[in-house]
Protein 1
Amino acid sequence: MNNFLDLADLDRNEIRSLLALATGLERSPQPQALAGRVLGLVFMNPSLRTLASFQAGMARLGGNSFVISTGSSWQLEYRDGVPMTGEAAEHIREAIPVLASYADVIGVRAFAKGQTLEEDLSEPVFRALSELCPVPLINMESATNHPCQALGDWKTLDDLEVPGAGGKFVLSWANHPKALPLAVPSAVVHMAALRGMDVTVLRPEGFALPEPIMARAREAAAASGGRVGETDDRQAAMAGAQVLYAKSWGCTSAYGDADQDAALRARYADWTVAEDWFRPAAADCYFMHCLPVRREVVVAGDVLEGPRSRVIPQARNRMFAQMAVLHRLLSRSNPT
Ligand code: CP
């Protein structure tokens, strides 16, 4: 493994091996494994979990990290041939080689622009970064992917002993005041399909996940024996569900059109996950969310704090999953 950009770059055995390493590091700390190694973290967008879990994970492995974030550093340009007359004072063509001369591995977060779906699906920032970065590169959330979230969530499902083959997983759109990116829903639907689960995307009209994202998930399901479907029928989606994973995302039928998005999402302001959503589900159906989450908007507080909720161990597992990634990318004792 030379980079960690997309779970789709790994086969199931490599993912299983990373998950075993994550669990091994959770149970048996290796406080010197990455002694003397340095992780550079570049945040072009805000974070709580990703920032803290990468720094904590690197420290637990004996390494060090530094953080570059928009607001405290120069805004970065990634496009080639564009006169830099705007906010961006530095180009990634200089910034990334400079940072790579200080660090052994670099993680980058660069959200979707949210203007055109085609541009965001083409991952322009990470395409440019992967050509420039001379050290291993980690995707800490790109325009349409969040593989660190997906790997941590896979570990959470394993910890909960939710079956891969045949386990019933529902990814539901939820109410939110803003048009959020597609990175988490895209990564999560792909992860659950890759895990061999029976996956249903529950979403209202206008919020269907784009066909390339659904096609990728169907392809993963075909390889793993899983299934991927979609519906706007909550009762049908939730029948027998073992996991409800809630997440909001922007309107896809008018992607990048803020007025149409707002008008459409206003119709679905009642898509706040509540206990009654779980009536058709398995009795012990779990609730998952990547966080941050808006209470009484995305989910009712009693569900978020109730016995179904696994959001805290889910966030904790980000750290162990990422420690496994760092260990695999950097440890001299591990084959690459
Ligand atoms: N889930 C997640 O990536 O959280 P942050 O945006 O806080 O990093």
Note: The chain has a mean pLDDT of 97.
Protein 2
Amino acid sequence: MKVLVTGGAGYIGSHTVVELINAEYSVVIADDLSNARHEVIDRVQAITGTRPLFYQINCADKRELQTVFTRNEIDAVIHFAGFKAVGESVHKPLQYYRNNLDSTMTLLEVMEEFGCKKFIFSSSATVYGPENPHPYKEEMPAIQSSSPYGWTKVMIERILTDYTTAHPDFCAVLLRYFNPIGAHESGLLGDDPNGIPNNLMPYIARVAAGQLEKLTIFGGDYPTPDGTCQRDYLHVVDLAVGHLKALEYAKSHVGVEAINLGTGNGVSVFELVQAFEKVNNIKLNYIIGPRRDGDLPAFWADATKAKALLGWEATHTIEDMCESAWGFAKNTSL
Ligand code: UFG
């Protein structure tokens, strides 16, 4: 089976490509490298012994995408490609709506042209918005978000739902990720954002590597047990395996299905910092600063649907996540 992975050179995409190749799928990557490096393809080859086919294209470019589908008989698409910085999206809403929506709609048009009917979408817990109580369950209304980035996820979920209604033989799985962190055990793949990281774990890793002076914990006065925000952190390799399970599911199903991928546990910023220090034997320099706009105090997944429908559950611990994240960061900071 041949799978097109858009954004396959990115953080979650590259880990998913490794799992796909290990499960003997034939993989084609489409990535414009706007937030990824070409070297990732070499690293995937080093890990798996197989080099995935790579096209440096933007998925909103219909002609280029048609070329990929003409040259390859694509059976399914896993769509990661998209802009993903929450804060940046507030300042550049048009870029986010244009890029994320256009690429998805172009993909759907080209898939229709070539008769491809299996679609796995990279959605986010952000679609539950600020109103739903946690743990988040898939049947809750997922029609809110607090940033243009998040709204692109809400809108794409809507587009895929409407498209599936119009094409009942199509299958769309909307995977709602919680907070993926950690890295591949080889130390060759991980989260390596351009510039100063927005997300917690890559920021911690750069402080640990001495590339950034100190971590600012955004808010110590939240209504949580230790005053810092709680999130559902999951290992990126567990998340990658979740895509494989979703693909298996899509092979024999039609219709649209939203599924949470999380551990079902809340972990605070403090707890994560302490776990990182302990497992890696490193002292992190940090201060407690003001709250960051738009952050919710706490949320985590109800992960029962993923287990029931996909037979998936997270297996890695917070310690595994912290150890592997540092294993990767050490390599890249040398
Ligand atoms: N945090 C810090 N200091 C930092 C960075 C983050 O204290 O330097 C805290 C945040 O305040 C938050 C926690 O660490 O409490 C996690 O923050 P991240 O930025 O790593 O992750 P978020 O939960 O904010 O964002 C995630 C995904 C988004 C998604 C969003 C939904 O990265 O894709 O959840 O709320 F949209």
Note: The mean pLDDT is 96.
